Structures are given as C-alpha cells and as structure tokens.
Amino acid sequence: MAAGTFTLKWGILATGGIAKTFCKDLLIDPTTRNANDVRHKIVAAASSSSQARAQQFLTALGVNNAKAYGTYENLVKDDDVDIIYIATPHSHHYQNARLCLEAGKNVLIEKPITVNAQQAEILVQIAKEKGLFLMEAVWTRFFPLAKQIRELVASGKLGKVERVWADLSFWNDVEEEFGTGHRMVNLDLAGGALLDLGIYSLTWIFQILYHTLPPSQRSAPAIASTMSKYEATGCDEQTSILLSFPGGAQGVATTSIRVSHSSSSDVPPVRIQGTHGDIHVHAPIYRPTSYTLIPAQNEKRGKIASWEFKEVKEEVPGGGHGMFWEADECARCVRDGRVESEGMPWEETVSVMKVMDEVRRQGGLVYLGGLESLEYPLDV
Ligand SMILES: NC(=O)c1ccc[n+]([C@@H]2O[C@H](COP(=O)([O-])OP(=O)(O)OC[C@H]3O[C@@H](n4cnc5c(N)ncnc54)[C@H](OP(=O)(O)O)[C@@H]3O)[C@@H](O)[C@H]2O)c1
After folding, report:
1. What is the CATH number of domain 144-318?
2. CB of residue 203 inside a 6 A radius of ligand 1
3. What pLDDT score was predicted for residue 186?
4. Between 46 and which of 41, 75, 141, 186 could a Cys-Cys bridge form, CB atoms 3.0 to 4.6 Å apart?
5. pLDDT value for 262
6. Which residues of the chain fall short of a pLDDT of 70?
7. Which family does it belong to (predicted)?
C-alpha cells in the first residue's frame, strides 16, 4: 500500500441486491482504476432479519474478520465503522439515516435519499450540525464519462445547451413480475417508476442544465408532468416530466416500467442538445460507458461546429460495476473533513427531491403509513 493511503472503514446497513453489488465493488483493488490514495474495508454488516443473514452476506462476499449484526441499531454503535452505506428500500431511508446520523456516523444513502424533500432537508441539517459526511448515492455522477460530459458542456463546446432529453425505462410484465408485493410497485416500500428509475432521467437533466452552472446561478425549474398509475397498487408506472429552467433551457425526463428505453444508437436515451451540436449518451444511462459527439449542421450553412463527430467508449475497469467511484469520493471527503461532495451537493439532492415532490403532487401520488413523516423514530 502506498504511504499516505487512506482507508475508509465501511458498515453495510441491509443485505439486499444493491448492497451486494456495492460491496463487490468495494472489494476491488482501487489501483485497478488508478486510485492510489484511498482504500476501502468492510468492517461490519447488519441485517434487520437476523445476525445469521448478515453473516451469510459477508461470507458470500468472502469478507472475513468483519462483524455481523442482527439489528441496524447494533451496527451504528460500532466504533470501528467510519461510514454506513444504507441500502434499504427508500421507504426506510429517512428512518435509517436518522439512526446513523444521530449515532454520529457518516452516511452514504442509496438513491433516492428519502421519500420527499423535507425529509432530505432534515438529514442535511443534522449532518451540518454534527459535522458528518452525508451523500445520496447517485453513482452515475462519479463515472469518468459523466464528469467528462459535464466538463464538455461547461467548456461551451456544445454552444448554449437548449434541451436535454433523458429516459430510463424498462419493459416488464408488471403483473407477472411485480404483482403487488415487489418493492418496485409496493406503495408500502415507496414503489413506482419515478422514485426508482425517473431519478436517473432527472439526474442527467440536472447534471447538465443545473450542475454545470456556477452554484449562484443554479435555479429550480418550472415543472409540468403527467403520470399513469398501476391499477393493482396505485404507484406510478409511467411518468413524463417537462422542466423549464430560467434562461430557457428545457428538460424532458421520462420513465416507465411498461416500455423500455432505447438501446439503439439511433435513438439514444439521453440527448444533450446545444447550439453547436449534441452529445448522445448510450444505454445504460445510470452506468455511462459510451457517448457520441455530433456537430450541429443544417442544409444552408453545413457544419456549424468547428469540431468533428466523435465516439467515446470507456469500459468500467477492474471487472467492477462502477459503484467504486462514488465510494472513492466518500473516502476522499471523509479523509479531507468535507461533509458534502461537490459531485452530489446537498442543495442539488434537495432540488431533485423537490421536483419529484411536485411531480407526485401533480399526479396525486402520496405515500401513506408514515412514509412521508418527518417524525423520528417511527416504525414505518
Ligand atoms: N444504485 C443503483 O444502481 C440501485 C440499484 C437498485 C436499487 N437501488 C436502490 O437501493 C435500495 C434497495 O434496493 P434493492 O434492490 O437492493 O432492494 P432489495 O434487494 O429488496 O434489498 C433491500 C434490503 O433492505 C432490507 N430491508 C429492511 N427493511 C425492509 C423492508 N421493510 N422491506 C424490504 N427490505 C427491507 C433487507 O435487508 P436486511 O433483511 O438485511 O435488513 C433487504 O434485503 C432502493 O432504495 C433502490 O432505489 C439502487
């Protein structure tokens, strides 16, 4: 290990699908992605079901010498844990994150950070007061290609970006695959396309039309939306959002669990359209590994941009999924005493949540049973 390498010690809260994927990435040697300054260690995992399940989770990952807890409450008391990764369904994020923050732990929370913006604001307030690191795990933003695209936009290469289209949708036999109990459609687990998938469409629009501006110039968009509900549970199965940003730029964000986003390069799922040309980001947009730069042209004037058509591809190194880049960001922030990441700032997390709040208001989608409550502790 290089001298001066910082090791971040992780506690994993929940043992489901994404927890497993994230932990596999934590275990990949960071030098395979040229990260020589940070390392990760899983020191504990907790399951709300049983200690045995937590132990099985660690054993399946090949993690030895880590502690297995049968409650989340015990995990947050572990002095050896620097940061907790919360990987429960988003219905439970607010309660779980309060538990961690109140216990003085740094936190990385799966997306969406909470069910509504007010809950997110409270988490931010507590993190600020206690001087703890807190970040919504929007891993897409930490991909080298996402950074590259933001830099291209900020440099003015595309001219003025007028419009961003973004779609994240998956074809499913919804009744057969999800029924009424699956977290994707179960209102008790804050199910629905918007909070689970639509957040990625909004991520692309925000990281281009909002994040590339200096912080003082970032302003909330006006919002018009439409939502179709899944009859069996009442969650949203298809949602389309029009965003109008001050200065005239427009965003079109769509999401569905009935039909798929395009995987053809002819119809890219993200199109960033500037006066000098476009960037097409190819699927999967939550894990960007390729994009195309297309100079603007018209019949009278020919090619308008001074640059050429270009295709860019960059596979995820080390055989990983690509979640390790956000983990590296957490390590650097904790090491340097930074409580928030510039890549996913608190204010922007709350702004995206506010958009989703308004879209749910327009669509009449409310989560009951205390899921939207600000109270803590609450048994949701
Ligand atoms: N970043 C990404 O690419 C990505 C991908 C998928 C999902 N996600 C996000 O990650 C979160 C978890 O998704 P997932 O697919 O990992 O879900 P999952 O496979 O269902 O796992 C969720 C885990 O949460 C724990 N849990 C605690 N209370 C629960 C309850 N009442 N009902 C169900 N599970 C409960 C369980 O672990 P224990 O029994 O061990 O406590 C369960 O295994 C969601 O917020 C989702 O939006 C992110």
Report:
1. 3.30.360.10
2. no
3. 98
4. 75
5. 84
6. 1-2
7. Belongs to the Gfo/Idh/MocA family.
Residue 324's nearest CA partner among 9, 30, 7, 11 is 30
- Return the domain boundaries, the chain: 6-140+323-343, 144-318
Using the CB atoms, write b or e for 197-230: b if 16+ within 10 Å. bbbbbbbbbbbbbbbbbeeeebeebebebebebb
First to last CA, the chain: 44
Give dist(CA 4, CA 156) in Å, integer.
Answer: 37
| pLDDT score of 32 | 97
Position 280 scores a pLDDT of 97
d(CA 103, CA 193) in angstroms, rounded, equals: 32
User: pLDDT value at position 1?
Assistant: 62
| CATH class of domain segment(s) 6-140+323-343 | alpha beta
Mutate to test the pocket of ligand 1, among 21, 48, 76, 141 (most ligand atoms within 8 A of CB): 48
Tens-digit pLDDT profile for residues 100-151: 999 999 999 999 999 999 999 999 999 999 999 999 999 999 999 999 999 9
Position 139, amino acid: W
Q: Which helix (H) or strand (E) holds 347?
A: helix 346-363
153 Cβ below 6 A of ligand 1: no
Element (H, E) at 204: helix 199-209
Out of 59, 183, 196, give the residue to mutate to test ligand 1, the one with the largest number of ligand atoms within 8 Å of its CB. 183
